[in-house]
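Batch manifest, entry 17 of 40.
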Amino acid sequence: MIHTLPMSATHIADEALERYSLQRSSDEEIETVEEHLLVCDECRARLDQADHYHRTMRLALRDANAAAPEKSRLRGWLPSLAMAGAFAAAAVVAVPYFRPAPTEVVELAAMRGVESSTAHANRELTLSIDATGLPSQPHYSWTVTDARGGASKGGAPLYVRDNRIVIQAGKLSPGQYWVRLHSPTGEVLRETGLVVRR
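Output type: structure tokens
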């Protein structure tokens, strides 16, 4: 039910996530899936996409059934069946496009001056920052800024564990970036280089 992906990250298998979204999982599988969803942002995002897809398909089928002429049972039944078949065929083609972009986990170098870490564009980036020697803080924040000091994003870390602070930076365009970790007062505690390649 749970399968292992590259970078030692474990995620819910597509088939299990599909069963859960359609409310067809066994009680044991529901428990396992829900425990994993509590700690995995990526699988929660995949589940949201699956739920959205199923809602869209149900609404489209409902609308198609409501619009079908009901002059006779045969006339009302055949368009619905044809529409359901068309939607099923579209679903087979569309499912790969609903899959989230692959996630890349990048461990960042400790300080500026050290060779920058590298990542790939068009991937959801999860960045892991070494917290060794940092003062204990109730809340950290982070920013990612391009080399010109322009495009910037930021937020709160996903979690702090095993002397690593993990942040979800999303997708970045190719280029040079600075990733900064801040104290609650805005003081820069860590600054690391990140090169995003095509």
